[in-house]
Amino acid sequence: MLLRYAAALVALAAAPALAQTVPPPPPVAALLPAPLWRTQGRFGLNANAAALSDNWKGGGVNTVGGQVLANVKASRKNGPHSFDNEADFLLAGAYTNGLGYRKGQDRLYLDTKYGHALNPKWDTFASLTLLTQWAPGYKYSKNSVGDEQAVFVSSFFAPAFITMAYGFEYHPNAAFKVRLSPFSPRLTVVTMAERFATGLGERPYGVSPGHSMRWEVLAAQVLAEYDKNLSANVNLKARYVLFANYETLEAKKIDHRLDVALTAKAAKYLNVALTGIALYDYDQDESIQYSQGLTLGLAYSFQNFVDEKK
What we know:
There is one protein chain. The chain has a single domain, classed as Outer membrane phospholipase (ompla), Chain C (Beta Barrel). The chain is built from 3 helices and 16 strands. About 5% of the residues have low confidence. Helix content is 9%, strand content 57%. The termini are far apart.
């Protein structure tokens, strides 16, 4: 009997020490298999408005505006092989009393890429990209008698830029990557180009009269992307594209485009978004074009993986 009591006391004394040597169970997320495709998305529905009484002496007009944005990504890695896809959509406009509806920002961007790893920071890649817009666009001006007139200058797939790029991608971390494409043919599509002759001349977006497409086969492209969570509730996303045609290679004829979006979550489904686009395209205008927007609205996001350190 004494031996039994002694054995029980020894077991009780050793229990805390044994408990310390047993590792804690892994978190639930670690027990789940890694997803075949890593997917993530951000969606926003934003609005802005200004309402003035009829006797408001400070000047101004009633304005109601809105913005819809969406960004969805899907990627997969299989050994040295990688597949990345992205869809990016933005449409904004406003109704102003006395002027009617005016389109603001408008973008449809689709990108798919296959990569083959050379080392942890460099890949070779081949990609296909589409950039166009959804809604009709107009240029507003006043005629000789002072009346405002709207001139039709763009529409869906007018223009559309389809680019095939081949080269090398550098990705030193999860937040930044840059594609260097010494061979990057581009097809410019302008459906029914004659519609835009009044506002853009005989060669809208560089497409010759009587044609709806323009090939730029001997060309190069640089595409850089930065996507980083500056804090738990603030995200900065930027995309820069340089396109150069070897046949007309000179500084003033190199295209540049920069898209930037800064999004801050004010609550679980509420966000503030600052978006901007800067564009230089010699075939469109000899000066820099830009647009910007600041909105407050609803936001929703999802992803099926844990963020890497950026």
